[in-house]
């Protein structure tokens, strides 16, 4: 079957770890299509992997299998899971790397213990059936010995519950959301900085008040006085704010890196002020 | 159809932008073959992308579709185009990134306004028909929302003029050519520096006078006294000059980086002196 | 035929050299599956390429063709070869890059002149028949002009001896092996440092004495007092030793880079002490 399997890891580009996973998959399903999402996720950076996956999976065909191996707990008792959503399947350690997928796929609410209940349209299964694993399983590379063969067999049409018993909740990261401060300022956060140096925030178009205008956006002590529509709206070397291709508010430097100029880091606040549409006296 | 689509971008390797384009393409044509040319083109470096594309496209099978998204003008009124040549199709912003392709495919002469007329064997079309685009189209990522779906549908056999109206000229960069100075020295330029640190110039074998020998090649104040045939002709750590695999004169350091040792940059002059074949007295 | 061809090179990620090889292959066999093993092998680092290949090839399906182009001698009289093993085919320069493959595939003993005899289950052939090459062959890029087309035609089912005459030995690197010092210490070496900064040694589980315990492992002046089973056994920022996924003893820093903290380099010694199982008095 010519299903697509995508791969997202923190294995970097200078070793054969990714290739050995692909070899295992092709040994199981020679016709599968393999697509790299990203292998330069920071070592063991689960939240970065979660974000990167989130910017890729909605654009793949229905039935795509997304294999994610950013797995600091490999060899411990962390679970490995298969998650089936109406759009796609996910094979990953149960460490929060699927947090955005759960958010976007209609998972239920978070429980007190950092888990998230599986919503009605989703199914999740612990990977416990060794029948599909490589043997022997190494204690340090479940990507090659467990996740890759499970993804391979899943691409052949196996039901997700062939791999283990159903579970009703998965680990979820505490995803930041912008908050409204007392003076009406919307306080969001930098979720991700892309390789152009664009600062991508957790603020979406729905978080802005449609009536309230004009807008000012502050990152550190830099204030941006308007929303742009596209990068080309900016003067050369102008810092701008716009809603980017992921639907999130981005701060960007035309012809350079906003990260470098603003010395910004993931987690920093981005503050958006909207007036109520009426310019107040004296302002 | 198992057509090949290649991808050349400045999206880097740490985001899912390339993967999301591939997902869109595979959703349109699940059987297409996807090949990465390069994703580490310098941000918005159109001339670098043009050069890199030029070293790849001649080696792909007839009918390959080359998708190039180095697009500083995304969201502005720059055109998006499909170019059909006898060898291949190209889907790209009309910003000069196809300059070498036009040069090599027999485009007509440059016009005064930085455009280049489309030669008799070529056809070009503006991408204006939104029927094939993702909807809604973001204003910042036409790679995913316009170029990728157009390439996908083109790979299914759509005619290029399904995507928009024919155009008779495309933007072309002013490509440097070596010039002959008054004393007969050939003055070329570094077009590209590859990841080995080899300096690749705009001087080709045809630019040298076949009779004139011997040759000396100068980069900055370093003079190389002969042409080598291959890297292995050099002593360890010797700087040599040779005609490389792209047919261009290269300056190379055996076992190291000529870029680093000569502190060379793209655009620097490389000067070639040939005597007229007769050694002059006193030299 | 949907054979797999893998690619291992030192061409880096910022040029189109790898893509041009893929274009040549797809022009010969449009149905072949192409998988990148690694393209960031250090320039001309044959032993690193040999190691990286070794961590990938055992995991690919039978009949996979592994194309390796780390070729400092391109254009010289170094041979180009096809090696057939029971598991896979290899197309590479004859410069030692297949050393581990020979070791693992049952090659005969090393000869005095740095060659290794081809064992009974293996066949090797010099690539001398220009019928399958691109024409003209450049003197600097045999990857594109000789190795890629040979791999392409091999994937179509050509016999390896269609490409040239049989040879009975191949160049082999002197692979390091741990040695036992007079006081019983096992002295191994760092073979490879992966992108996590893990130090991978030439010591395998078989090199340890099964009876002898406990173990201490020394890298420089850092001593590790036990063997861990997996990365997750470690405290945050603890340096540990364990047998990794390649079956080799690794020294690793949980949550960081052992390379950086221990200032370790490929070739450094790693010393393993095992007592004879009886704790001595006073220790």
**Main beta-sheet annotation of chain A:** 9 strands, mixed
Mean pLDDT of chain A: 91
Which strand-content bin applies to the residues of chain A?
25-35%
How helix-rich are the residues of chain A, as a percent range? Answer: 10-25%
Basic shape of chain A? elongated
Please tally the β strands of chain A and state the result.
Answer: 18
What's the number of helices of chain A? Answer: 5
Oligomer: homotrimer
Biggest interface, chains and residues, is: A-B, 35 and 32 residues
Low-confidence stretches of chain A: 279-283
N- to C-terminal distance of chain A:
64 Å
Supply Rg of chain A: 21 Å
SSE series of chain A:
EHEHEEEHEEHEEEEEEEEEEHE
SS content category of chain A: alpha+beta
Could you explain how this protein is built, in words?
The structure is a homotrimer of 283-residue chains. In chain A, β4 and β5 (88-93) form a beta hairpin. By secondary structure, chain A is of the alpha+beta class. In chain A, the strands form three sheets. In chain A, strands 10, 11, 12, 13, 14, 15, 16, 17 and 18 form a nine-stranded mixed beta sheet that branches. In chain A, strands 2-1-3-5-4-7-8 form a seven-stranded mixed beta sheet. Chain A has five helices and 18 strands. The longest helix of chain A is centred in the middle third of the chain and has 14 residues, at 142-155. Chain A has helices spanning 17-28, 46-56, 99-104, 142-155, 258-262, and strands spanning 4-9, 33-38, 64-69, 80-84, 88-93, 115-117, 123-126, 166-167, 169-171, 179-180, 186-193, 199-204, 215-219, 222-224, 227-228, 239-243, 248-253, 269-274. The first copy, chain A, starts with a strand and ends in a 9-residue tail after the last strand. Mean pLDDT of chain A is 91; it is low at 279-283. In chain A, 17% of the residues lie in helices and 30% in strands. In chain A, α1 packs parallel to α4 (142-155). Chains A and B meet through β1, β2 and α2 of A and α1 of B.
């Amino acid at each position: 079957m010519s299903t697509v399997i995508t791969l997202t890891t923190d294995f970097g580009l200078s070793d054969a770890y990714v290739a050995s996973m692909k070899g295992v998959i092709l040994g199981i399903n020679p016709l599968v299509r393999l697509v790299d999402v990203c292998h330069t996720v920071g070592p063991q950076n689960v939240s970065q992997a979660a974000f990167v996956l989130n910017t890729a999976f909605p654009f793949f065909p229905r039935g795509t299998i997304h294999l994610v191996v950013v797995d600091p707990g490999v060899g411990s008792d962390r679970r490995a899971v298969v998650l089936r959503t109406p759009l796609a399947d996910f094979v990953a350690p149960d460490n929060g790397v699927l947090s955005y997928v759960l958010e976007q796929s209609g998972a239920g609410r978070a429980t007190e213990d950092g888990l998230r209940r599986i919503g009605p349209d989703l199914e999740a299964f612990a990977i416990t059936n060794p029948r599909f694993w490589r043997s022997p399983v190494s204690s340090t590379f479940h990507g090659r010995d467990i996740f890759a063969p499970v993804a391979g067999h899943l691409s052949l049409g196996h039901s997700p519950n062939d791999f283990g018993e159903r579970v009703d909740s998965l680990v979820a990261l505490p995803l930041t959301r912008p908050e409204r401060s007392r003076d009406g300022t919307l306080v969001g956060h930098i979720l991700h900085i892309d390789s152009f140096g664009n600062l991508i925030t957790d603020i979406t178009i729905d978080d802005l008040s449609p009536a309230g205008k004009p807008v000012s956006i502050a990152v550190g002590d830099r204030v941006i006085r308007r929303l742009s529509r596209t990068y080309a709206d900016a003067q050369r070397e102008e810092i701008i704010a716009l809603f980017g291709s992921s639907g999130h508010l981005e701060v960007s430097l035309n012809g350079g890196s906003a990260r470098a100029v603003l010395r910004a880091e993931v987690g920093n606040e981005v503050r958006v002020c909207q007036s109520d549409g009426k310019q107040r006296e004296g302002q």
